[in-house]
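Mods, move this if it's the wrong board.
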Amino acid sequence: MRPSRNRIAAGMFFLTGLFITAVACASLIQPTRVPTAVPPTATTAPTETAAPLYQQVKLESAPWTDSGTPFDYTIKADVPVLVGSQDPRVQNFNVEMKAVVNDAVATFKQNLAELTPTPNSTTSTFELHYSVLSPPGNLISLRFTIQTYYSGAAHPGDASRTITYDLQDGRDLSLTDLFVPDSDYLNPIAKYCIAQLSTRDIGFQGFELGATAAPENYRNWNITPDGLTITFDEYQVAPYAAGPQTVVVPYSELAPLIRPDGPLAPYLHK
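Not the wrong board. Structure tokens:
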């Protein structure tokens, strides 16, 4: 007996259902693929730029006092000291500033030792102070003012000493460092100073020699915001009664002579 068409169709339908079910079950039991983790992109930490050395330090005063006999003297001094860094350039500055004070005190004591004490002798005194004339920055331009009085003298005496220290290079600057090599910078500086001093009621006539274009006459200079400041000690360009004199030479007066890559270059664009 041959199977009916309905029975054959039913069998085929049954087998097809079994196949579909098996395929579906197989897909259900396949292991789930875990996506591979993508490592995070490495980022470089920002590099910290060290602050300029002059921003890491602070200028302070270290007081120094002394007294003694038989010459009966007193000493008071302010020693400039940079604190906040052990950088060799900083330590070099501190050593040099201490040496400046030491030299001045030694000169005072040497002169004192040459005096002959008398029953009427009074106390001899030494005072040293300083001021910073430069604006904040890499250059530290100092002016020391030294006042001494020796027993028996008619009046005290004043003297100046200036130092401009390049903290970045760790050295003192000389006047020649500011100008184009081999330039005749002293003549225009002297010409300007003489013109200014001539207008003052200080008795400059007769003291003109102290302002001529000689290096020793312009040993005391400072870098200041408004110009190159020249200090003339008492008796140098005027009688004692007039006191020390200062002249500020505008940088514009010296512009053609200033080194374009030198310490004064930033002032040419102000």
